[in-house]
Write a structure and sequence with these properties.
- The complex is a heterotrimer of chains A (362), B (245) and C (79).
- Chain A folds into 2 domains: 224 residues, Rossmann fold, CATH 3.40.50; 110 residues, 3-Layer(aba) Sandwich (Rossmann fold).
- In chain A, helix 1 packs parallel to helix 2 and helix 12 packs across helix 13.
- Chain A has a 7-stranded mixed beta sheet, sandwiched between helices.
- With 362 residues, chain A is an alpha/beta fold.
- The longest helix of chain A has 19 residues.
- Chain B has 245 residues and is α/β, with parallel strands linked by helices.
- Chain B has a single domain, classed as Thiamin diphosphate (ThDP)-binding fold, Pyr/PP domains (Rossmann fold), CATH 3.40.50.
- Helices cover 34% and strands 18% of the residues of chain B.
- A 7-stranded mixed beta sheet of chain B has the order 3-2-4-5-7-6-8, with helices on both faces.
- The radius of gyration of chain B is 17 Å and the shape is globular.
- Chain C contains 2 helices and 4 strands; from the N terminus they run E-H-E-E-H-E.
- By secondary structure, chain C is α+β, with helices and mostly antiparallel strands.
- Chain C has a two-stranded antiparallel ribbon.
- Chain C has a single domain, classed as Alpha-Beta Plaits, CATH 3.30.70.
- The longest helix of chain C has 5 residues.
- Classes of the chains: A alpha/beta (362), B alpha/beta (245), C alpha+beta (79).
- At the B-C interface, strand 1, helix 1, helix 6 and helix 8 of B face helix 1, helix 2 and strand 4 of C.
- Strand 1 of chain B pairs antiparallel with strand 4 of chain C.
Chain lengths: 362, 245, 79
């Protein structure tokens, strides 16, 4: 295919899984290249893309490995196409070199991580233990990924669409950080009628490899050997990241102003935190909720403001505690922070959260 | 009597000093690729994929669109480029580490899928850029930085990989030829092979491979004259020249 | 003159392959050094260039242009 074809996918409200929703979002965002490798718990995403890329005139490749897949995305993006890959934790580890290369070469792409428990082979149950990998680098070198964390299927659909726009706008890879719960659970999603061709085309792609006709040759690279050139390039990248930090922080907060304690959680653990907050409020405890939507750039100032005057901040994660470090950095010692988590695919119950909070407050 | 320039630098080859060593085969093959692209009028439709290796900066020397690729991944990158823009003329230019070691899976699978690509494989039987370690194509007995006593399969160092023969076994590989650039006659044969590999892509046939045995004087510890002789007399014993498929 | 060479002496790296392969010994290495600090290939005026282009083929640095004379019918003027 030489250019985006107009999308004729039907809209309407559908009950679909998170894996499927992210695929439907991608094709409606104008994604016309997908390469992936099977890995549980995101195989339905890959299989959906096989059909959707065919139906939209795009390209689907089941790559020979996770490494090959991210490098195929590199190639597709280099030609100016909206491109995506998806995987789960161990596969995302394999992609890190390719992601670093894309950040260095300023190539847009969307990478979806449907997190599972680790480390190592781990198992296929949900976890949130790739927060560090997503937000603190993962790959080598000084770069950042924009990391979007949906907490429901409908939001997974919206954030995947947003991800493609942010990737093109800033010429940087974007990661959608989901987990096995979100991937596998089904919720209603409004699949709007597609008109994504307009959006995709509004971003400048004059840098892309399209054949050097009537212009100087384009080069896509991240190697800069001449003295001082790489430092200069890093300054350009850092300026870009400062701009993203200024403009793209996203979060959600509920009942914060009246709260005495604050729960901070993202993704699936937010759903449980929200239930625990509701139950505690029913028992007279004034609980507020803060949910980062962008894990990078982390909504530090908004969190600081939300937490001031609170007796305590509770952070809940399906991990040994990764986002909690960013919470502590944001609060800078102004409010006590308490953490509760489960690892290895274990998941806390609402009761467990409530018991922990009550015990801690005593 | 009129004077005409019979042989000169092709348009697709930039007028720049290269960083390659004196006598290195890269310079010759870069020029041949440029000549063929000019003769087939493909400059404005060509996208090259440069490897990691001494020729990582090949994009400096060619006058068309080029992308880097991570080490070994050129054929994955090229696969996607060709699938997204099938009217473009897409080729990879890779060394023996890139194509046959770290990138061997990408090589086999791109070939197996019959991607309509042209793959130029520069085989100098050693890792040049990093200072002379064993390559998959290092020949038995060849001394390198990591085989100081000479490559020996009995020491678990494996046999030299014959990539052209391996890939020829795949149905969707339509062309595999091994050539060399150790003398002008071989250079002319190499140009013919490169042209065939690009014509195959124009005609939408499957995967085409040109394996070029290439002299590496500095890292082999030889003069250019010794190096071309070593390719002619020694390398061809392990890697026979000719069309394999 | 039936053929002659244009050699970019400062781009020459002194590899000597053109000298090795010229069939009529029309190329030789200089005694003095170019701006790269190496001996460079130059025409041996004692012999005649045939315009065969083998030096062009083997030169890794595209230093050599081969210029030939053509008569009115466009054919190369060869002895």
């Amino acid at each position: 295919m030489e250019k985006n074809t107009k999308n004729k996918f039907s809209g309407g409200k559908k009950l679909i899984t998170g894996n499927r929703a992210m695929a439907e979002a991608a094709v409606r965002a104008g994604c016309r290249f997908y390469a992936g490798y099977p890995i549980t718990p995101q195989n339905e995403l890959t299989a959906s893309m096989a059909k959707l890329m065919n139906d939209s005139g795009g390209t689907f490749i089941q790559a020979e490995s996770e490494v090959a897949a991210i490098n195929m995305v590199f190639g597709a993006s280099a030609t100016g196409f909206r491109a995506m890959t998806s995987s789960s934790s161990p596969g995302i580890s394999l992609k890190q070199e390719g992601i670093s290369y894309m950040a260095g070469a300023e190539l847009p792409a969307v990478i979806i991580n449907v997190m599972r428990a680790g480390p190592g082979l781990g198992n296929i149950t949900p976890a949130q233990s790739d927060y560090f990998q997503a937000t603190k680098g993962g790959g080598h070198g000084d770069y950042r990924l924009i990391v979007l964390a949906p907490s429901g299927v409908s939001e997974a659909y919206e954030l995947t669409r947003l991800g493609f726009d942010l990737a093109d706008q800033y010429r940087n890879p974007v990661m959608i950080l989901a987990d096995a719960y979100l991937g596998q659970m089904a919720e209603p999603v409004q699949l709007d009628f597609a008109d994504e061709e307009n959006k995709a085309e509004k971003y400048d792609k004059s840098w892309a490899l399209t054949g050097a006709k009537n212009r100087k040759p384009n080069i896509i690279r991240s190697l800069l050997l001449e003295e001082g050139a790489l430092e200069k390039h890093n300054a350009v990248l850092q300026n870009k990241f400062r701009e993203i930090e200024k403009k793209e922080k996203r979060f959600e907060e509920k009942k914060v102003s009246s709260a005495e304690i604050l729960f901070v959680a993202y993704g699936s653990s937010f759903r449980l935190a929200e239930e625990a907050a509701l139950a505690l409020r029913g028992q007279g405890q004034k609980v507020g909720l803060f949910r980062p939507v962008t894990l990078w750039p982390f909504p530090d100032k908004a969190l600081y403001n939300a937490a001031q005057g609170k007796k305590a901040v509770f952070v809940f994660e399906l991990s040994s505690g990764q986002m909690v470090e960013d919470v502590k950095l944001s609060l800078n010692g102004t409010v006590p922070v308490h953490f509760f988590g489960r690892t290895g695919g274990g998941v806390f119950s609402v009761q467990e959260l409530m018991d922990f909070v009550k015990k801690t407050i005593k | 009597m009129k004077e005409t320039v019979k042989f000169k630098r092709p348009e697709s080859l930039c007028d720049l000093q290269t960083h390659y060593c004196p006598g290195c085969g890269h310079g010759i093959v870069h020029r041949l690729v440029a000549e063929v692209i000019d003769e087939l009028d493909l400059r404005e439709k060509t996208i090259g994929v440069a490897p990691v290796g001494c020729s990582v900066v090949a994009y400096k020397y060619w006058n068309f669109d080029v992308t880097e690729a991570a080490h070994g991944r050129a054929l994955a990158v090229a696969t996607a480029i060709k699938r997204c823009r099938p009217k473009m003329n897409v080729f990879t230019y890779q060394g023996d580490g890139d194509l046959a070691s770290i990138g061997l899976a990408e090589t086999v699978h791109a070939a197996n899928r019959g991607e309509k690509l042209t793959c130029i494989f520069i085989n100098n039987a050693i890792y040049g850029m990093t200072g002379g370690q064993m390559a998959p194509t290092t020949v038995i007995g060849q001394k390198t930085a990591t085989t100081p006593w000479g490559r020996d399969p009995a020491r678990g160092e494996g046999m030299p990989l014959k990539v052209s023969e391996m890939l020829a076994g795949l149905d969707q590989v339509v062309y595999a030829e091994r050539v060399a650039v150790f003398d002008p006659a071989q250079v002319i044969k190499t140009k013919k092979a490169i042209k065939q590999a690009f014509v195959n892509q124009l005609e939408n046939k499957g995967f085409s491979l040109v394996e070029v045995l290439s002299q590496c004087p500095t890292v082999w510890g030889m003069s250019p004259e010794q190096a071309v002789n070593w390719v002619k007399q020694e390398m061809t014993k392990t890697f026979p020249l000719g069309r394999i498929k | 003159m039936m053929a002659r060479l244009n050699i970019n002496k400062d781009r020459c790296k002194g590899c000597g392959l053109c000298v090795l392969y010229c069939p009529v010994k029309h190329l030789e290495m200089s005694e003095n050094l170019n701006s790269r600090g190496v001996p460079f290939a130059r025409e041996n005026k004692g012999t005649a260039c045939t315009g065969c282009g083998l030096c062009f083929q083997i030169c890794p640095d595209c230093c050599i242009e081969v210029i030939v004379e053509e008569n009115e019918s466009g054919k190369e003027h060869k002895k």
